[in-house]
From TrEMBL:
<protein>
    <submittedName>
        <fullName>Protein translocase SEC61 complex subunit gamma</fullName>
    </submittedName>
</protein>
<dbReference type="InterPro" id="IPR008158">
    <property type="entry name" value="Translocase_Sec61-g"/>
</dbReference>
<keyword id="KW-0472">Membrane</keyword>
<keyword id="KW-1133">Transmembrane helix</keyword>
<dbReference type="GO" id="GO:0016020">
    <property type="term" value="C:membrane"/>
</dbReference>
<keyword id="KW-0812">Transmembrane</keyword>
<dbReference type="InterPro" id="IPR023391">
    <property type="entry name" value="Prot_translocase_SecE_dom_sf"/>
</dbReference>
<dbReference type="GO" id="GO:0008320">
    <property type="term" value="F:protein transmembrane transporter activity"/>
</dbReference>
<feature type="transmembrane region" description="Helical">
    <location>
        <begin position="32"/>
        <end position="51"/>
    </location>
</feature>
């Protein structure tokens, strides 16, 4: 059903290969995440304006 030894081997393999991201990688992820949040906010704002009737299409 569930092989604990196989799970431990694959988990060890993942932790061996993985590494801690650097500062530049963190900055890139923060920029992309921030732009995504802003984009979703802008889209939501325009949808709200359209649904409330302020902007006619």
């Amino acid at each position: 059903m569930f092989d604990m030894d196989e799970f431990m081997q694959s988990s060890t393999r993942v932790f061996t290969v993985s590494r801690k991201p650097g500062v530049s990688e963190y900055k890139t992820m923060a920029k992309i995440t921030g732009l995504g949040i802003i984009l979703i906010g802008i889209i939501a704002f325009f949808v709200k304006l359209i649904l409330e009737g302020f902007v006619k299409i």
